[in-house]
């Protein structure tokens, strides 16, 4: 074992196996774990707890930064080890348990979990499991590929289990900016005025007396699933880039744009990769997750700096970045998610936010979390943090899917995550609707004209025309508002 990674001598007798550490977690506990979109998560202790739960009647409430890798959420859900989960997930097994009512899920804005814990509006964390590269001489810890909520867990948890991952180089020291805002009512200004500003320390403070166990691991993060751009995502990217170019011509933006936030997935990657062959340069990011496209743009000389809370990349990109960290360490920084996602900074920096919708309606309300109004997919993530506070709030989705039996532009969304007040631009593969400065009736016509799949345009125009005949500031035919979802459930298509 690499005991040299424990630089505080008094902690070396805390080393144990993952199975021994899992025994420290008792039934009914609130557990906080590092991990943000597969990066920097528990690789041994939580899986060991899942194995234990297969033969014991034990359940926990699990808080993380975002989703976990290595099928950990699925293993915990399958073993019946979860009573409640927050604030985000992407695992199919866990999703099915949530939708069946077997696991309670709290879908939170990612900026809020730490705040709620500090404000004592959530139950206190009994024990935290945090992945680190090493423990420094003062007992502070160096996180690995994410920060997430680890700073808060380290500060507030009654006990802490540390997973020292020897697969991660100790050279990650220095890529993190660890800053914790003061509790209310003594909170001060967070002094970040540009994405590259570093305002905190390089390690997470931790009281050594709280360390209950140390487990060694040697396992890389689950690699990101990088899907190649397809005709629809390519079309969406082209619409967005053309919009940006026009904003420059109008004098609203420069060729450097403003700091960009992009959600995860192939649409975000397609949009970001579109910048490679554009006239834009010296770009910056202030986001949540850095993906392959981030480092591709850095290598292409298009992106000068990126700030986020985690690095979630493919296996090849991981080796490129962390195997050559000296090349990249002055190009990016990882922060706690209640800093990367804090609304005040998003507003101050003038973020251009690009996020994905499941569906949106003719007035610009966006559903990014639920299928047919009731079944959760993943969660709102950080999209709400950015949408309401961004300089530009952009949502994207395909116009239709499943051989066009589903329209993603509807009379009324079946679940609202982002109201029309928080949405500036809507984009599908068909086109783009700029909703700024438009009243509801104007918004509806703009969306129908620009974003709707041809198979549904006449149908949606008919709905809107008949709604307008009834009157109202935001006209609707209420008895038909959800008829498209009902028709899909009954007949297998939204088409009349």
From TrEMBL:
This is Succinate CoA transferase. GO terms for molecular function: acetate CoA-transferase activity; acetyl-CoA hydrolase activity. GO terms for biological process: acetate metabolic process; acetyl-CoA metabolic process. Transmembrane segments: none annotated. Belongs to the acetyl-CoA hydrolase/transferase family. PANTHER family: ACETYL-COA HYDROLASE. It holds the Pfam family AcetylCoA_hyd_C.
């Amino acid at each position: 074992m690499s005991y040299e990674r424990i630089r505080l001598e008094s902690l070396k007798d805390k080393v144990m196996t993952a199975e021994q550490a899992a025994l420290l977690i008792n039934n009914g506990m609130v557990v906080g774990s590092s991990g943000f979109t597969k990066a920097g998560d528990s690789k041994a202790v939580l899986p060991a707890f899942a194995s234990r739960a297969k033969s014991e009647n034990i359940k926990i409430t699990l808080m993380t930064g975002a989703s976990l890798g290595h099928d950990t959420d699925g293993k915990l859900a399958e073993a019946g080890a979860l009573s409640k989960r927050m604030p985000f997930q992407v695992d199919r097994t866990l999703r099915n348990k949530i939708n069946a009512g077997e696991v309670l899920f709290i879908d939170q804005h990612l900026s809020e979990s730490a705040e709620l814990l500090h404000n004592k509006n959530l139950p206190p964390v009994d024990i935290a499991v945090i992945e680190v590269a090493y423990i420094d001489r003062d007992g502070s810890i160096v996180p690995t590929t994410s920060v997430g909520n680890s700073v808060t867990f380290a500060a507030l948890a009654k006990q802490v289990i540390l997973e020292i991952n020897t697969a991660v180089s100790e050279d990650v020291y220095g890529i993190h900016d660890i800053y914790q805002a003061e509790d209310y009512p003594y909170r001060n200004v967070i002094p970040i005025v540009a994405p590259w500003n570093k305002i905190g320390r390089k390690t997470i403070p931790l009281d050594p007396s709280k360390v209950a166990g140390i487990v060694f691991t040697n396992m890389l993060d689950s690699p990101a699933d990088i899907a190649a751009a397809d005709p629809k995502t390519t079309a969406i990217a082209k619409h967005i880039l053309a919009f940006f170019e026009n904003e420059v011509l109008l004098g609203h933006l420069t060729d450097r744009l403003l700091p960009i936030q992009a959600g995860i997935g192939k649409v975000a990657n397609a949009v970001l990769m579109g910048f490679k062959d554009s006239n834009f340069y010296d770009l910056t990011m202030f986001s949540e997750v850095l993906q392959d496209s981030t480092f591709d743009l850095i290598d292409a000389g298009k992106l000068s700096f990126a700030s986020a809370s985690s690095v979630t990349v493919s296996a090849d990109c991981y080796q490129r970045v962390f195997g050559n960290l000296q090349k990249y360490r002055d190009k990016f920084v990882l922060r706690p998610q209640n800093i990367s996602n804090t609304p005040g900074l998003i507003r101050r920096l003038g973020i251009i936010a690009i996020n994905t919708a499941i569906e949106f309606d003719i007035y610009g309300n966006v559903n990014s979390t639920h299928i047919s109004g009731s079944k959760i997919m993943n969660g709102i993530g950080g999209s709400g943090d950015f949408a309401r506070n961004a300089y530009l709030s952009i949502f994207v989705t395909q116009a239709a899917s499943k051989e066009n039996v589903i329209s993603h532009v509807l009379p009324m969304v079946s679940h609202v995550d982002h109201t029309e007040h928080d949405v500036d631009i809507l984009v599908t593969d068909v086109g783009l609707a700029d909703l700024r400065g438009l009243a509801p009736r104007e918004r509806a016509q703009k969306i129908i004209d620009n974003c709707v799949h041809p198979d549904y345009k006449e149908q949606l125009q008919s709905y809107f025309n008949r709604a307008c005949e009834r009157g109202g500031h935001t006209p609707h035919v209420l008895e038909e508002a959800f008829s498209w979802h009902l028709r899909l459930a009954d007949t297998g298509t939204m088409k009349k």
